């Protein structure tokens, strides 16, 4: 068990992004409606469904890579999938941070930083 912290961090990222992806898929209309209002005064106001679709795809990739990465670490101490999970997770979170800052939702942006820290730690540990 040399990789306990990495496995736990990957589990955290998997839960975060797979659950978020699940909500986007099964509550798509509610998410789009809320986000259209959230971004009404930004340049993204007409791009919400497309931006949400891009984020959904990246979140699912991040979550799946996190699961595969944790399994890889457990079975053969391989680091590739976990490393890419961290990279994709960071990209997702940076996209969300950009959106929150654009919408001037500074509390929401601050919350994203809490998720960004473990993602960067995964990248660092598995590099």
UniProtKB/TrEMBL annotation:
Keywords: Membrane, Transmembrane, Transmembrane helix
Lineage: superkingdom: Bacteria
Transmembrane segments: 51-74, 81-102, 108-126
Protein's name according to its UniProt entry: DoxX family protein
Organism from which the protein derives: Flavobacterium johnsoniae (strain ATCC 17061 / DSM 2064 / JCM 8514 / BCRC 14874 / CCUG 350202 / NBRC 14942 / NCIMB 11054 / UW101)
